[in-house]
Structure formats: C-alpha cells, structure tokens
Specification:
657 residues; Beta-Lactamase; seven-stranded mixed sheet; alpha/beta
C-alpha cells in the first residue's frame, strides 16, 4: 500500500488507515474481552438469584413433609423443581443432617453439596452453581435444602456470544479499513467531530450534537446522527417517565393491598369476637331463665312467710336474709338477661343531655371528691329511644369502672354529641349500622388497659379487680343493654393513658314525656276463675296458693294438653289464662291462640324468665297481651292479675324486657 513503504513519511490516509485499523481492532478486542465477561457476570448473578428462588420455593413446599416426616411426599414435591431444565440436583437433609429426600443424588455427591456455604457458590470445575438454604418452621430450623443449577447452558451461551462478537469485530475491522481507505480525508473532520460527540454522549451528555458543516453526504450523515440522538433521548426520557409511573403505581397498589389486608384482619377479629359474645349471651340467657323459676319460688314463699310472721318473731331475721339473698340473685339474673339481650324493656323517647344532667350530682357523689367530674353537653345530641332505667345503669357501670381505674385522683369526663355512621365506618366495624346517632362518651385518666384485656372486656364474669370487688358483669351488662337498644359501643384504651367508652344510640324525633308520679295500691282481692298453666311444679304450687288465698278460683295444669282438657270440660267462664311462655310441648302463645277460639272473652297473662317468642318480640313493649317477668313477688302477681282483669275489651299492656 502507498504511504506504507520504508523511508517515507506516512501519508494522512495511511495514518488514517493505521489509526482506523488500530482503533477498530482495539474496540473489537475490547468488546470481545469485556462484554462477554460482563455478560457472564450478569448471567451468573441471575443464575444465583434463580437458584435462591428455586430453593426458597422448594424449601417452602417440602417443609410440611419434613415436619410430618414423610420422605415420599417430600420427594414428590421436589420433582416439581426437576421440571426446571437447569436444575442439577435438589437434596433435603433434616435438622441432624440426615438425608431426607433428593433428586439426582449422584450429581449432588459429585458436586460435594455438603460443602456448600450459606452464601452459595460455584463448584471447582465451574459446571454447577450450588446453594444451601435452611428450612424453617415456626421460627426454628427443621432441615437444610441443597440445590444445584447446571451452568452448562450458561457456558454455551457465553461461548456463542464470544464467537458472534469475534465474527462481528472482524467484519467491522475489515469494513473500517476499507472505508478509511476510500473516503480518507473527505470525512476525517466530520467523523472526528462525531466521535467526540459520541464520547461526550457516552459520558452522559445527551444534549450534545455533532456539527453539520455541509449539505453533502457527510453533512447528511451528521444530520441523521443528530436525529438519531434526538430519538434516543426522547425514548430515554419516555422510558424514565414510564419507570417512574410504574414505580408509583406499584407503590400505590402495595399500600392499597396492605390497607386491605389490615382491614380484613380487623373485620375478621371483630366478627370472631361478635360470634363469641353471641354464644356466651345465649348461655347466659338460658341460665337466667332457669334460675328465675327457682327465684320465683324462693322469693314468693319468703314473702308469704314474712306476711304470716309477727314482727318480733325470732326467726323473722332468718327469713329476711333468705329474701335478701333471693333479691341479690334476682339482680344477677337481670344482669345476665341484659347481657344476653333477653331482658324485658320499656323504651321511651329520652333527651340525652337531660339524662346526663340529671345524673351529674349522683355521679359526682359516686366517684368521690378525689376525682374531678366534668360534663360537656352538646345541643346536637338530640333524642333517643331507650329504657331510662337501663340507660342510667349503663352510665353508672361505666363510671364505677372509671373510678376504680383512678385510685389516686384523676379526671372523669362525660361528653354528649352526635355522629354519622357512613358506609366506610360500617365496613370497618362489625355490627354497626349506617345512620345518625347520639353519642355519650365517658373518658378517664386512669390506668387504662392493654390489648388482651380489651378483647375480653365484655365477657361475663371477666374482671381485672381483686376478689370480692366485682361480679364481672358490669361491662357485659353495658354491652347487652346497648345492643338491645340497637346501639353501638366502642372502647379505646392504652396502659397508663386512660380509657374512653363511646356509646352510640340511633337518633329519633320527638320530645321526652314527663314521668308520672308512682302510686303503690293495696294488694287486691278477686273472685274470678284463673286457668294456671306452668310446667314447674314449685312455681305452679306457689301461684295457686297465692291466688286462692286472695279469693280466686284456680284451675291448674302442668302442660298445654292438660290445659285444653280442663278448658273443654269446664262449663263455667274462665276469666283469665295465666301461662308460662316456654313449655316443653306447646308454647304459651300457641296455647292461648287455641283456647281463645272457644273462649274469646278470656283475658291473657304470660309469665316467663325470658322469652324470644313473638309475644315479646325483641324486648319491645306491645299492647295486646299481658306479661309478668320472673321472678315476681306475690304482691306483684296479684296486682298484675287485677290490672289485666280490670282493663276493657282486649287492650292488654305488656311488660317487656
């Protein structure tokens, strides 16, 4: 080639050819040596990550089999990993290092799998990537999983890459020499400028462009080069924007899923608690019903004996103690019935602020001088429909608990207000219903409660107080009364940060009626005929004796079948049917419907410890039948009988729980 002979200075084109040859050769060599090495490094990292992922999946799958000591099941689970073509072996050893299950155990032994460290690595011959992963169950290590991925495909891929790069580099080198010889100095300057531009872009200066000096092919090349750079920069910017959007969407969706999981867990916990409270409530209601039959007999005969004793009778005090014990037991059954939502109630329209204001002085005396009592009444609280006595009991129970939580001074605050339960609130609180509510919030600065105590706060007979300091029915009673009034209750507390009990009752329109003065009439007498139906012998005997002692004629039956027979055989007028609501064969309501077909003039009076019958549906007062709550005294029985008999037509008041 001219310009390359000895003794003569190299021409510019020779220099260009030489320079081009060296440059292209160097670039080709660099590409041949550098990029395959980098590619190999990235591929090996990918293989390592894949090996870890396969190991985690296999360890998670085989853990149950390892726990139950079932090698056959473990081997079947490991066969799923064998479907991955690059897997050389998978071995599972138990906690003592004993082989549990394996696929391709011979390969594993040749690869010396037990020498695998926790970081993993490649065998000495470079053919297998080894991984060791502990298998955990409930926080303890129950075994180790050894996995090996074959690197043969990786090596083949890298070898092919090297051959392709070598071929491409050779072609580029030859083409570069040819181009350098042909165009020489015509493109030297523009190309140099483009090279410089390329270097600057490689350093991250994407705004750099090659200068265009002419409109010939070289100029067009420079212009096209710049156009390509513009397109690349736009694509790069769009890709970065897409990456940012994708990351943001992933973050948003991750946060949304986390919120959904937390919300679902909370709802599941509330649902389980509600089911538990319902089950305990049914048990409590059943116990109270049976216990009230016994108390009716005890209290009834106690009153009868006391009425026959002289004031100075030496045994009178003993009978008084029996009556007092019966009264205390009756109070406990009322609390159980309140918790189980089977207590008879008489709801009325009440003004929330008036209730709290009327109780303020009594509550202040109740908590003592060491505790400061603060009331904050909000005019928006409005009116609710509830049983006044039960609502006062709810507030007193909560205030007593607050007082006991503040043994060394503190502040008790009672606030009224209003709240709206929307769909979002209802979704997060099991048992809540959407609507407008009046609120009564009682908060204290006492010792507070931890989370485990909060979970059991409404359970009957659960108490954090010492022996003889509480029955454990206070908050259970509160829960039952609020639920029976179609309300909702929330309790928030933390240790050493006090407690806040929030009561919510549905708002109603109207004004609270004024309470009439109570008058206690004398015990009445009568001469009417009473058909008494009661399956409890002791209660039936007591009622029969009380009624006959006051002049009534009593026809008695232990069940509905006998009552129908007596009614059919008795030719006279039966003025009133006095029957238990719940009986083994036929309910009291069904018996009354059957007898009233032939005796339409007969009045009705039901009695029971509790009932879920339609006569006292959901504990709401009606006016078509009479109801007598057990336990009752002889005086209460006689007054109720007289009250029902003296009413006109069929207007019968009902005392409901």
């Amino acid at each position: 080639m001219s310009g390359m002979s000895p003794g003569r200075a190299m021409t510019f084109r020779s220099k260009l050819v030489l320079l081009t040859g060296v440059l292209i050769g160097g670039i080709s060599a660099f590409i041949f040596l550098y990029f395959p090495g980098r590619a190999e490094e990235r591929i090996l990292r990918t293989v390592a990550a894949e090996a870890r992922d396969i190991s985690r999946v296999a360890a998670f799958s085989v853990a149950p089999a390892l726990v139950f000591g079932d090698p056959t099941a473990g081997l079947e689970l490991l066969k799923g990993a064998d479907e991955t073509t690059d897997v050389a072996y998978v071995v599972v050893a138990d906690a003592k290092g004993k082989l549990f299950a394996a696929i391709h155990e011979d390969r594993a032994r040749r690869a010396r799998y037990r020498e695998t460290s926790s970081e993993g690595g490649i065998t000495a011959d470079g053919s297998i990537h080894r991984t060791a992963l502990p298998i955990l169950y409930e926080g303890r290590r129950i075994g180790t999983l050894y996995a090996g991925l074959s690197l043969a495909p990786v090596r083949a891929e890298i070898a092919g890459m090297r051959r392709g790069i070598a071929l491409a580099s050779t072609l580029v080198f030859l083409l570069g020499l040819l181009v350098a010889i042909l165009i020489g100095t015509f493109v030297t300057r523009p190309l140099n400028q483009m090279v410089e531009t390329t270097k600057e872009i490689a350093r991250g200066q994407w705004q750099r462009r090659a200068p265009v000096h002419s409109l010939d092919e070289v100029g067009e090349l420079a212009g096209s080069f710049n156009t390509m750079l513009d397109a690349l920069e736009r694509s790069r910017n769009e890709l970065e924007e897409l990456n940012r959007n994708l990351e943001q969407r992933v973050d948003d969706r991750t946060s949304e899923l986390e919120r959904e999981v937390i919300e679902r867990q909370n709802l599941e916990g509330q649902f389980r608690q509600a089911q538990k409270m319902e089950a305990v409530g049914r048990l409590a209601g059943g116990i109270a019903h049976d216990f009230n039959n016994l108390l009716t007999t005890i209290l009834g005969y106690s009153h009868l004996i006391l009425g026959q004793m002289e004031p100075d009778d030496p045994q009178r005090l003993d009978v008084e103690e029996i009556r007092k014990a019966g009264d205390r037991a009756a109070t406990l059954t009322k609390q159980l019935l309140a918790f189980s939502r089977k207590q008879v109630i008489e709801p009325k329209v009440l003004e929330v602020n008036a209730i709290v204001a009327n109780m303020e002085k009594m509550l202040c005396r109740l908590i003592g001088e060491d505790v400061q009592c603060v009331t904050e009444l909000d005019s928006s609280a409005g009116h609710i429909k509830a049983d006044l006595g039960q609502l006062e009991q709810v507030i007193v129970n909560i205030v007593v608990n607050a007082r006991d939580a503040m043994p060394r001074r503190g502040v008790l605050t009672i606030r009224t207000g209003s709240a709206d339960f929307d769909a979002a609130f209802v979704r997060q609180h099991v048992g809540a219903q959407p609507g407008r509510y009046a609120s009564i919030v009682v908060s204290d600065t006492g010792t507070g409660m931890d989370h485990l105590t909060l979970l059991r706060i409404f359970e009957p007979f659960f108490t954090t107080k010492g022996p003889s300091k509480g029955t454990g029915l206070g908050m259970a009673t509160v829960y039952g009364i609020v639920k029976q009034s179609e309300g909702y209750i929330l309790v928030d507390s933390e240790p050493d940060k006090g407690t806040r009990v929030s009561l919510y009752f549905p708002k109603v329109a109207g004004e609270a009626p004024s309470a009439p003065a109570e008058v206690t009439p004398p015990v009445p007498r009568g001469s009417e005929v009473v058909l008494l139906v009661e399956d409890e012998d002791a209660v039936r005997s007591l009622v029969r004796g009380v009624l006959r002692s006051r002049g009534y004629t009593v026809l008695e039956a232990p069940n509905a079948t006998e009552a129908v027979r007596i009614s059919n055989e008795f030719t006279g007028v039966i003025d009133i049917l006095l029957t238990d609501v719940i009986m083994p064969d036929v309910s009291g309501r069904e018996l009354a419907d059957q007898l009233c077909q032939a005796r339409q003039e007969m009045r009705l009076l039901y009695m029971s410890g509790y009932t879920e019958d339609k006569v006292v549906h959901h504990g709401v007062m009606t006016s078509d039948v009479g109801f007598l709550q057990k336990p009752f005294t002889p005086e209460r029985l006689l007054h109720k009988i007289r009250e029902v008999l003296d009413r006109r037509h069929d207007a019968v008041a009902v005392e409901m729980r």
